Description:
0% of the residues lie in helices and 46% in strands. It has 178 residues and is mainly beta.
Amino acid sequence: MKLRLLILMLIPFQMVFSQTVPVTFIYTNKTARNVYLAGNINSWNMSDPGYKLTDSNGDGTFEFTTNLAKGNHQYKFVVDGAWLADPNNPVTDGTEYNNSLITVSDPMVTYLLPVDTIEYKISKAPLITAIVAFGNTTTIGFSNLSLKINNVSVPISSGNYNQTTKIFTYQSLSSQLV
């Protein structure tokens, strides 16, 4: 079975744009001890304590949220001293260094699983998870979200979006796979 381009669209409720947007970076590795974010946002400092990801519940999922200015940002994770591109972000800067690239806008999706690719093979219907980021002056609620799978609108409910954590989840169905 194939799942083609998975799209989560945000329709801003309030078109007042902030200067920065809180962006959450997530890295999963059950054996990692120290994970840092390094990039043009911190002069590529590989051990900046202000950019250390934390594994708050010990499950190997490290998270870090920082306010970023709108625009392009290059970054990598530094995992126990090794420089790694973000495995959840297929966009890179195209250089020999293969830096991950994120374009910050308001609003935006900062984390989307499964990884958004044009086409890939899967054996079961995936859980779609997205962290929605927006500035303090932008309001996003359930009514502002829409989801398309294989270019077909999917009905969602208020239970798919937690406004406190800004996390959207949707369990896709086998019938939605092509």
